[in-house]
Amino acid sequence: MKKFIKIILSMAFVLTLLPKLNAQSEKPNIVIILTDDLGYGDVSFLNPESKVRTPHMDALAKEGVWASDAHAPSTVCSPSRYSLLTGRYAWRGSLRAGRLNPWKESAIEKDRVTLPKILKEKGYHTALIGKWHLGFEWPWMGGGKPSESIIGKGTSTASCEMFDWSKPIKGGPLGAGFDYYFGDDAPNMPPYAFIENDRLTCEPVNIDGRKLMKQQTMRGGYIHGIGPGEKGWQLNKVMPTITAKAIDFIDQESKKEKPFFLMYAPTSPHSPIVPLDKYKGKSLAGPYGDFIIQTDEAIGQVVKALKNSGVYENTLLIISSDNGPAPFMRERIQTHGHNPSGPLRGLKRDLLEGGHRVPFIASWPKGEIKGGKEIDALLSQTDLFATIAGIIDYKLEDSIAEDSLDILATLRSNQTVRQELVYHASNGKLGLRQENWAYLHPKGITSEPDWFKQIWNGDSIDGPALLFDLSTDLAQRNNLYKKFPERIQQMESRLKKIQNGKSTR
């Protein structure tokens, strides 16, 4: 009888654990790490000639899968982030050109179905930690915002007195469907302070951002003028603070029954270039390279937190970048011999491959995304929406994530799902990728300075149209517009059809 009672009690104990075990096994946790301005040539698993070693990303590529033909939806940050979170091309909405200037309102429409919204509907706890840069409804004093000349098309002169900080900061990540937000919005724009959910975490004072840059950074870049911020704000504390928050979120949420979605958005290696002292001199590419090493170690800390919490095996983990490397860091190539675009031509903001072809790693051991395989099929960050929707069994209506494709088969076995992709330059010009062909609007190359052209031995790619066969000319040295006029005509016609259509899915 005693033995029977012990068996019953043991069974009862096991049953008390089943809800938690089932919750962990039914749905994967999802973590997206979206770095800022990390180039294709910056990571050593893609570029053996990189002057920067990225051991944590290299190790994850060996555990999961890595893509050699993955693309950010745009060549600058705001539209890329919009597309990832909505599954639609940003040029279909308000982000047709450029990125958001300081103090802009939310770019994601209030009624737009977003990735965090569908995950919440399926029982996920959702958080964004790090860079947002998709706008807020700022609490302007009296309810009306100042003129563009004050807010700044480029440089802001807005001051604390223009805001009612007793009121919440509406819109932003919470308005887009996240349960929790912690970050600094954008590292080189006011407010120079952390935001937690809908409030600043400090009593703001007026700060001259240019003085911050001059006093605290080692190299160039830009920062957008005067604005409210935290007294004594240290630019180099942003990365370690948001990384610690991300790790804490994983530690806490992994103990709960609900699955979680974390978008961790490092502010590096975007300017201001502010590596911590312990990383200085660790690369062969100067301060920029040192900042990449700090970024790589932050990614390693997040992966370690997933493993230590026991949820790594059933976590879909994605690591990528919002666009190609910034063009301002001239000494990377001329002084250190480090090409942040690697074998690609082009930089952030333009339609050449270096502007949008980015590092991409995926891991989900329990979901058969593993094995260290190269994925050479075409894919886009826009596809993460439909892929995750398929994993959580969320049916997408035609009006939701209309440019997103389910690429789970691509990530698992390198099956080709995406046949074409629209490229989106910072100035609003578009291009089209079909198989190995890349058609680019000739005015979509905006950021290739003369010193960068020198590494291509003076090869000119001027012309009324740009056409490249990437299977034989990944470096885009040879413009084939004269040789294949019919193909250009066909691709231009197809691009117009996509622009005029409501969906590409």
From TrEMBL:
Query: Which InterPro entries does the entry mention?
Result: Alkaline_phosphatase_core_sf, Sulfatase, Sulfatase_CS, Sulfatase_N
Which GO MF terms does the UniProt record name? arylsulfatase activity; metal ion binding
Note whether Repeat occurs among the keywords: no
Sorted alphabetically, which keywords does the UniProt record give?
Calcium, Hydrolase, Metal-binding, Signal
Q: Which SUPFAM superfamilies match?
A: Alkaline phosphatase-like
The signal peptide here is 1-23
A Pfam family name for this chain?
Sulfatase
Q: Where is the Sulfatase N-terminal domain?
A: 28-393
Q: Which family, according to UniProt?
A: Belongs to the sulfatase family.
Full protein name:
Arylsulfatase A
Q: What organism is this sequence from?
A: Lentisphaera araneosa HTCC2155
